[in-house]
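Lab notebook, bench 4. Still working through the backlog of constructs that have no structural model yet. Next entry is a single chain of 250 residues. Request: give me the structure tokens for it.
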Amino acid sequence: MSQAEFRAANPYAGFGTVAIEAPEVARRTFVRKTYTHLAAAVYAFVALEWLMVSLGWDMKFAEMLGRSQYMWLAVLGTFMVVGWIADAWARSATSIGKQYAGLFLYVAAQAVIFLPMIGYAKFLTMDVGGQQIGVIPAAAITTLIMFGGLTAYAMFSKQDFSFLGGFLNILAWAAMALIVVSILIGFNLGVWFSAAMIIFASAYILYYTSNILREYRTDQYVSASLALFASLALLFWYVLRIFMAFSNRD
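Model written out:
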């Protein structure tokens, strides 16, 4: 894709210099700030999750969702709207405060939607090398290792994965449609769907990692970290689901 075509497809490129066109020092600073903010988002997610579980909100949320199959649809719909608002705020060209508000809003939304699954998973363990370990730390470590490996591959191979964008968007809508149908008819999508979604999330990580320099300006490190956090959270969701499927109850 030429720079002219990219600018035509990406409205945010018109507000300033995208990172790939910036001087090398500015590019490096942008990447460093992006991953620093990503780490902060992960810590904030863990802290919020711990706080809500400590307050017993996980059980209350699970009870609320259990009252009707349509509650999950309402939660998913709300999450999509909140995610869209958070991304729009994080891309703000005028206010750094609004960018941080968008990132925090998205992290909080992810923490809430994870809450019932975390509440259930905290009772589950896995047999690893003859020892029983919790599925949550096991899934978290696995997710971070996968994310780190994919990030390193995308960075050091210097391949352009921007071609995946349109294909991933189509798959995202198809996956959402399957999830909605499964909720409506009470059908369990099963382990194979989770495995497919792990591949899907991994492709998104490759896409965003290789594309943040082309899609964001050097002052949009908060928004870039939100995009990476979204793909990391998606990967963690389905890794945790698979670990839960093969776990043991204490």
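Notes after review: The chain has nine helices and three strands. The two ends are 53 Å apart (CA to CA). Flag for follow-up if needed.
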